[in-house]
Fold each of these.
Amino acid sequence: MDKKYTVLIVDDAEHNIELMSEVLKDNYNIMTAHTGTEALEMMHGANPPDVVLLDMLMPKPDGYDVLQTMNGDEKLRMMPVVVVTSDSDPSARQRSYDLGAVDFVSRGEELGTIRSRVKSVLRMCELEKMRRENERLQREITSEKRLSALMDNLPGGVAIIETNGKTAECSYYNSKLLRLFKMNSDRFSMQFIMPTRPKWLNTFIEKAKTSDSFTFTFSIGDQNSSADRQWIRVTAGSMPSSERMRETPIFDVGCGDIKEIYCVFLDINAEKRQELRAEQNDKQLRENQTRLETVIDKAPGGLSFSQRGSDGRFHTEFVNRGLADMLGYVSCEECMANISKNPSLGVSTEDINAIRAKIAALPETGGEFKYVLKCISHKREELWLSMRCQITCGGDGKKNLYAFTTDITKEKSFEDELRAAAYFDPLTGLFNRHAFMRNARRVIDDNPLTQFSLMLLNIGSFKVVNDLLGRDVGDKVLITIADAVREVFAGRGVFARLFADNFMVLTPYSERGVHPQTILDAVQKAVSESGLLTHDIQYYIGVYVINDRSISVENMADRASIACRTITGSYHEHIAYYDEKMRLNMLEEQQICDESRCALENGEFCVYYQPVYGIKAKRYTSAEALVRWNHPIKGMISPGKFVSVFEKNGFIAELDLYVLEQVCKFMKRRRDEGKSDFPISVNISRRSL
């Protein structure tokens, strides 16, 4: 981004503001507000923020009130808001979206996620601004009347297209063009502003870069149905700048040289059908060979003509300048000479045989085929080429081969990069979550007689490593662990880095597999020998022995995760096997979390006072406040079941405050009744301190 955007962080907790500011300060200007009122004032200020990170759980006005106010304010309505909150209410996400939030981030997610979300939201807003600007320009552009009467009576569709070499706009088109494309006006115009342009328009822009006049053929519609496939030839020529009638360009200043190109689009379906008639095509090609060679030699891409000889092989008789340049030759003559000596120069035997097989599979009258191959150029560079070949049968009975070759080396490299990004973790090189789920499912299904186990490896308190030693060291630790996992499971399982510090492995649950302790030992040894850490860290493995193969791999992974969570934080247990009791405990904990807030509001938490007897004083000297949950259905619930759950999700702080408040009210009642003060001790969770 050229502009440094401003982010407003709204949170009543100072430490949350500090954490998010630390993550975002390098890339954004930071504004902070501790209350909803202060935040709204900043949004109305002289320098309003570009995006707002809003906590929902604040004193009134809380985050929901702020969203409600912004939604009713014409100035603030379009300001993007990303909700960052620890609100555990399941409806919080939907409620935030209903009030206008564009994204929702739970407090438990990685802080790095917030930076990515902010960047994504700002990009989305910029794209929306661009879309609106394009729509405004499109509405303002009116079809000019010049040549309209003539163009409407020309055969085929007529259009005026302006291009700067990167984008294109259509300033005029006649009704015949819409009928040819089988589109209405809106759909045709959308082709020029869609993020992914149609292939023909990309070809048009590329050709316009290098030539003032050109012709090419393309097809639209269903490519697999000859009945629904429409073939079109466009003949285009640009007008010299001195003769252009447009006074104001449709592109912004600075976009580069603009060409105004007049185009005629012709329906060539009948011509395409004629191409299948080999003898007629061959005669037509020969009659125009001299004229076509001049045009073809200047055309972009590689073109060649070969004829089958008496030995049954095709001999190249013509190559254009484009093909010679593509293959690294100084001249067409040098290219022809080298190809004549060795037709398969730089091409693998496998590709040569595949091309011959495609030619042999065509009917005697000829046909068309496509092929992508890798070759070595005359300059010893690796190339990926896409070939489109047409075989025709001449009047003399000889077969002719016309080939159009395109250099797709860059596209192939980009495709490989996309494939790697889709299936592999960029840091460790292991499978990512998506690839693991697919491959694990395949392995399980392909081996119905083998029992497998799914293991989740988690690093305890890995965030501390990043905080103390830096993210670079943390990344090196993850790479070291990945290498250890790769070495242990080579050929004996499917393994991946799911996310953050979580690794997952599928391995046979037998002697052919790997025991969890072996993984722990290998990982601990590798990290220790690397010398990256100054302190010991704990590793935990949750194991799910796959007894039900019908469930999804996602569900299997969840069960391994449940087992891992039961021992996370322990210094003595590092391996846990999933059983049904774990799932029931997890469901019970979830139910406790879901009902906790309503229970607090309904007064279901009761405070009891356990007296303390002083031996020396021989009387009761104080009391200890104890909290119990009097559930309307389950009855009395022991603190042993809910306190640890509340400490995990942070609700314990609210419960502690509630108990303190009840104790204070109790002592106030004693004073009002004229009774003496009675010391009462209250247990406070360390999470509240």
Note: The radius of gyration is 36 Å.
Amino acid sequence: MSDQQQKIKRPWRARVVTLVLVVVVVTTCLVVGLKNGGYGKSIEIATQQMVGGKPRYCANVQLGARLSSTQSRSELSPFAFDEVKDARTFRIFILGGSAAQGYPEEVFDFGRMLELMLDDAYAGADFEVINLGLAGARSEFVAQIAESCVNFEPDLMIVYTGHNEAGASDVEGAERAAMQFAKNLHGICRAGTDAGAHVLLCSLPCHPRDLLPSAVRHRSDLAELNGVVKSVAAELRGEAVSFVDLAKVFQDRPASSIGGAELFYDLIHPQFSGKHLIARALFDVTSVLLPEGISRHKADGSDWSLVACETRLVYTDLERYLSTRRVIEMMRGSTFLNESYPPERIVELQNKADAFKQAMEPKMNDLLGRYKRMTGQHPDDWRLGWKIADYANRYYKNPRLAQAQAEKVLQSVPHTQARILLMRLAIAQGRLSDGEAHAKALITLYPDRADHYFDLGEIYKFRGEYEEGIDAFEKGIKLNPGNQSVVAYTYLAELHEALGRPGKAIDTLYDALADDPAERAARVYSNLGILLADQNRQDEAVKVLTQALDKISAKEFHRRDEVRALLEELGEMGLAKRLTEPDLP
């Protein structure tokens, strides 16, 4: 080969090598990025924990992070079941989105009702109904959850998914969504049947009224998706897959029963009565599928009417009020298919909430007694215990009862809200070591949640451990630098000032105003003005306190008096007078 030919080939070799290296680097970055984003990882629905002195499988509280990285992401409802499945146990998994999970009253989901009906009807069997519904979950995510279920010996899988698939902007998009939905349903069924479980594919009901202009489109999309559910079930009928037409159950309810509009809160989320209707339909289908060893022990005469269910679960006007209020808050702060909820629907729900509140007030004295009596009959029902703990703290100001019940709940199931309540009670009672233990346990469960670092920082602040408090607050602010961190910034500034770092305290409060200049930052403005004045930075102090004039409400009269006095010291009498004038209506 000539020297000229070699000179020609060498650059091309170098280019090929370079190209290969580029491909390798890009591919590696892509794979790492996808893995960091949650792709390619197996989903784990449960983690092993010691509960009540024995190892159990418990809800993986981090599963919602796969759907959303926000601080307010969705989370599995609490559950715990034994590592070794007893021969008498019939294990049921419910899969789907927020409607399956039971929003807005997850503690009253249709799975809980189904479990109570089955337990009552079949003595000697132990029914475990584990709700794996997760707000925002689409069918592809539900399929991954189904694959994780195979590790836990399921007997029955109830699939209630599809609402999050509806809403395509055009016909072609709707067709693609339907095809992908069918593929995902096949995957769910394959995972269930391969594990030896029977799979129930459910059609989805929705509100009969057009609450939004998009409701017509959603109902049309849902009808098509329900057709896909029915078609997939028909294809796999010989493979332990059945179709449950819940949409038809709602359409065919007796004329004397509750009206269709009263079965839903919004377009897709059933009220208690709607969940009861679902549970009754699923009970009938499940009863046919039970093994002979269980079905031959069926009891006669079980009464699981709507009223009986409300009595057993202690579903009261207070629950109706709280649930309706939660839906109202959701409607005011979110959209459905990019449309705001109509004001008239919000007003309609507000009127109902007001009626529930008025009806419940004369019954509040006996409410706790009702829960206690039902807990006495069903001591293993940790959900009743949690209600007692929550209400004893929130409405009856009985911290001793709240603490005892919350501790009892944690002996049955890992329960985030129960642990948060115990932490708050410990802080309020000065049991800071107990509070610290609970805060650290929550951080272990939720290492990316800012609020638990703020709780820990507050505990250290009370104990005079300022450096530790600063570290905790800074970690929390780094996780969530937005407007929810205003109080944390204020505490952080106080700790820096306590350690003789006024400059750092001032910088911290300026950071707070950069993150949240809204009205809730009034405390930051006034504290910053005071710090600036103490450091003889009078011009800055006057400027900040001037801004504070429009932030401090008339209700905060102590803070108004404090700032007024400081402005007088700074010689700004005109500004001080503005603080003493009443707010205009």
Note: The CA atoms of residues 450 and 476 lie 4 Å apart.
Amino acid sequence: MLQLLLVVCILNMRVQSDIVSVDYSGPDGCSFSVVIGEPDFYEYGEYWYPVIHGMGLSHAEGEYVTPVRTYFIPVPPGCEPVITCTPVDFQRVELPGPFLVTPVPTGSGLDTEWIIPAITPAGRRGDYAELETMHMAGTTVAAVTVTPFATGNNSRIPSEMNIRLEWPSRSGSREIGNPLLSALCLPSLVYWPGSTERASSPFWGLPWVRIAISSTGFYSVTGDELAQAGCDVTGAPSSSIRMFGGSGTQFDLMDPGEEHSLSEIAIEVNDGGDGIFDQSDNIRFFAQDLNRFAFSEGVSERLYHRYATHNVYWLTWGGEDGLRMDTLDATPDGSPAWGDSLLHSLWQEQDYIWVGGYEDSTGWVWSMLYENIPGYFYFSSSSVDGDSRLDISLISSSSCDHDILFELNGDLIADTSFNGRVEQIFTFEGLTFDLSMNLLKVTALNDPGTVYFNYFQADYPRRLSYAAGRLLRFTDIVQGKYSFSMGGAEDSYSLLDVSDPFAVRRLKGSTAGGLLNVSLEVEPESELWLTGTDSYLSPDSLLPAEPGRIIG
């Protein structure tokens, strides 16, 4: 595979070497020239796109299909190179017909079609050459992307460009000897070797388990389950069992240097008091789904992951002592009573149809709304205790007016419309949810298959008479100490403070009449979880692995 990659890269260099020449390469910078040949035009349906010798094509969503080329130049580690691009001369360009906008896929499976958006991009309005630094092949490189059509003037492009990178002079450079780096970079350049120090890992030299979960909640794993998965934890000192996790968020695709570090998680290890982890013992921990709500200063935000379905946690043993959950006293002290309910958020979303050019979060939507044929969406709102709210997301792939009917449990809640190729979020407040099951009915009137149902969020006060197995949050509150009575608790230690998911704490209350009673300080960022006798979750998978290889 590596040899094939090298062959491809070397062939690529032959194509570009006749349009680019290096003028200078030294300790303080590099300069090179790029010759922009006369474009040839190719037809795609009734649209046209230009092709320039030695360049590839850019297919950015919402933009024209245009020639582009990226060149890699080694730079000293830690420097911030400055780029200067000077066009030498210009040439006229005459497009034979309409400029092709990057097609986008719609539909799913065999029904997928490539649609050309009926939009007129504003144009990049950027520079002819853009710079980004990254780590590659053991060193730091500057990726210089050359785009002749960058300024938005599609009738006039450069014939040649002189590009210079400058940085503070740095010694220690050497000729490129790495075949891969030599194939990727411009010829006759020097590079600065990266540091040979490797990042440390808490897992090196230790066994470990990869634990995958897909729902937020409190998990329990037994020694027997670990043994059946091929993870030989039994017989280890219980104190040495440790768990680690990351942020559970998607990497920023526009920031190749972004890092998500591991942090240790406080867990519970129940070993019967003998200090040795056996097959009948268990490990309990709080874990978060990738797609979840995040709360900051009383405001909720929905987090997505476009490319993964499971959050991953790492378990190891046999080394240092691990973190354990603390227990805090929260017995009732006469603080003001909170009340009978807490705001609960229900998120319903299914990924059935790919519309990547229109849906920005995941690329998927739930359903197409066919013309004058209602779409039916059911949801439960058990223990609802007051007025409720719905947020509904619709997406359209056409620029016309879209007339929509919304009905809830047989009652019309809106006869409305929206315009354009956009995502439109409709908010309805003061609704009455059924105590058991609700039916949301959505109809697109006189709109032939261009409106999609994306997701909906239901917010409603939910009684605390049974509060086990769900996230308890406190948005829109006045910070203070309150007394709570909650149903469904396993025992007086069942309430968890999960405001910091890496440092979960148990809260000790008192039980009476089937209710857990506690007094505690809460604020808008507070999050609690109540465990019941049947509310422990099991991971989707347990696998032995070697995470020390991931770092460094």
Note: Residues 2-17 form the longest helix (16 residues).
